[in-house]
């Protein structure tokens, strides 16, 4: 979706047809310092996002139509809207997927849209598995600082560094000012947990030695009554 335009396929979506009696369903979202303008269907985005649900209630009471997201990136919001309107994650830039998935996760996390956060996690795991790469230190820093504490994204970053990096440089770690202290502490704790598990017969060993792409589908997902678990959750992806 481009700024200044409504989703072209939105009018034919089941949700739109169901509530076609509402003519006043558009809201305006102004994103970033440049105030890139997006027009979206209120009921579609509010159904997905607790943030928008709350913001719309307040704004509607004040009879305003615009919601401002000054600190957000228009490209990330564009990616988010594509996902919300059923377009999947094709808007992700293949040149920098980790960065875009992490930004999308951070936005979805704040919006309270667990489906979008789960989709971003799946994207990171899939790309990592395909390309045999993990996010670099700068991306780990972004992931740690832009998502809530102990979030699935933070757990994934820690697991990548503990289980999937063949060679971790510990030179000059004392002077590392990129990786947050909380991240380094979590990595150390995880290594200690592995060391204590010791015995290969221990069931914990299997969990500790399984990489992200081999874990059950919902391992890094968040679900609740509003966002129920994936149907094939028990099977590896
Ligand atoms: Zn799931």
UniProtKB/TrEMBL annotation:
Region of interest (Disordered), residue spans: 1-20
Domain of life of the native organism: Eukaryota
Residue stretches making up the BTB domain: 25-93
Pfam families the UniProt entry points to: BTB (PF00651)
Listed InterPro entries: BTB/POZ_dom, SKP1/BTB/POZ_sf
TM stretches of this protein: none
Listed PANTHER family: BTB DOMAIN-CONTAINING PROTEIN, BTB DOMAIN-CONTAINING PROTEIN-RELATED
Protein name in the entry: BTB domain-containing protein
Organism: Saxophila tyrrhenica
């Amino acid at each position: 979706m481009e700024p200044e335009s409504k989703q072209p396929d939105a009018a034919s979506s089941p949700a739109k047809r169901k509530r076609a009696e509402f003519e006043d369903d558009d809201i305006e979202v102004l994103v970033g310092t440049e105030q890139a303008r997006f027009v979206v269907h209120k009921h579609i985005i509010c159904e997905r996002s607790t943030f928008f649900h709350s913001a719309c209630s307040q704004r509607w009471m004040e009879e305003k139509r615009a919601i401002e997201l000054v600190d957000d990136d228009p490209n990330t919001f564009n990616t988010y809207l594509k996902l919300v309107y059923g377009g999947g994650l094709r808007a992700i830039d293949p040149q920098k997927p980790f960065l875009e998935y992490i930004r999308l996760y951070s936005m979805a996390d704040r919006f309270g849209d667990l489906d979008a956060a789960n989709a971003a996690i799946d994207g990171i795991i899939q790309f990592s598995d395909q390309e045999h790469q993990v996010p670099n230190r700068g991306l780990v820093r972004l992931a740690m600082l832009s998502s809530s504490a102990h979030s699935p994204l933070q757990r994934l970053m820690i697991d990548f560094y503990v289980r999937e990096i063949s060679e971790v440089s510990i030179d000059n770690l004392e002077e590392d000012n990129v990786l947050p202290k909380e991240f380094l502490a979590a990595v150390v704790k995880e290594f200690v947990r592995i060391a204590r598990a010791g015995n290969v017969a221990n069931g914990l060993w299997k969990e500790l030695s399984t990489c992200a792409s081999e874990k059950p589908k919902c391992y890094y997902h968040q679900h609740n009554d509003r966002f129920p678990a994936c149907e094939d959750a028990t099977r590896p992806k």
